[in-house]
Write a structure and sequence with these properties.
Number of domains: 1
Helix content: 55-70%
CATH topology: de novo design (two linked rop proteins)
Strand order of the largest sheet: 1-2
Number of helices: 8
Structural class: mainly alpha
CATH architecture: Up-down Bundle
Radius of gyration: 31 Å
Distance between the termini: 130 Å
Shape: elongated
Number of strands: 2
CATH class: Mainly Alpha
Strand content: under 5%
Oligomer: single chain
CATH superfamily: VKOR domain
Length: 238
């Protein structure tokens, strides 16, 4: 074998490992690009969501206490739009003030924002709770405007807080969630929200509980007449 042939083989043998090494490096880089980033646990609370939920808690707790104490909220005189909305059948749900349910919703958001540190779990939980809160607030606002024909400033304030909270949560969607499809997620959670709001509407319509449905016009008129006449009912039990 000639010296040239030996040199050619030697150079080929040296080039082969280098070529294989470069192929391995490229494959490793491609795997790193395809591999989603690891979601690290949050080291601190989600202060933006927690703060907004805290404001909502203060507002709804104040409205709840005024109902339970039998007092009117500030700037909510008797006969005002606020008073009309609160005295309507939409002012309570399952025997409790509507504001109390709002307080529970904001409390859940505050807990999620402050305690849950898993980015994916926190975002998904906050998304669902805030979306249901927005749906319920929008529903009550539409009812107030088109059915009751009165808009409560406190209700509008709560709607604004909930919508801002939901908007903040939308912008905080973490990247790298495994097998996550945003469009499917939006569709699924929107359907769940519509089912919940639809169930509440059926309740207010008297389907599940007749006492929560529309008032009898005759009885309402009779009660109004007796109140104007200062009628007093006397009765006895035998």
């Amino acid at each position: 074998m000639s010296k040239k042939t030996k040199k050619h083989k030697t150079s080929t043998e040296k080039a082969a490992p280098q070529h294989e090494a470069s192929i391995r490096e490229r494959s490793v880089k491609q795997e790193k690009k395809k591999r989603p980033p690891v979601l690290k646990k949050r080291t601190h609370p989600n202060w933006s969501v927690t703060a907004l939920a805290g404001v909502g808690m203060v507002l709804t707790l104040y409205l709840t206490l005024t109902v339970w104490l039998g007092e009117a909220p500030l700037y909510c005189a008797q006969g005002s739009a606020c008073d009309i909305v609160q005295q309507s059948r939409w002012g309570t749900f399952l025997g409790l003030p509507t504001a109390f349910w709002g307080f529970l919703t904001y409390t859940a958001l505050a807990f999620i924002g402050f305690k849950v540190r898993s980015p994916e779990q926190q975002w998904k939980s906050a998304w669902i709770v805030s979306l249901v809160g927005v749906g319920y607030s929008v529903y009550l606002t539409l009812v107030s405007h088109f059915v009751i024909d009165a808009l409560c400033p406190y209700c509008l304030a709560s709607l604004a807080i909930m919508m801002v909270t939901f908007g903040v949560i939308m912008t905080q969607r973490p990247e790298g969630m495994k097998d996550f499809k945003f469009k499917s997620w939006v569709t699924q959670t929107a359907v769940v929200t519509l089912i919940i709001i639809g169930g509440m509407h059926l309740h207010y319509s008297g389907v599940f509980h007749p006492a929560a449905g529309p008032e009898d016009p005759y009885l309402k008129g009779l009660a109004t007449h007796l109140a104007r006449e200062n009628a007093i009912f006397y009765g006895t039990l035998w």
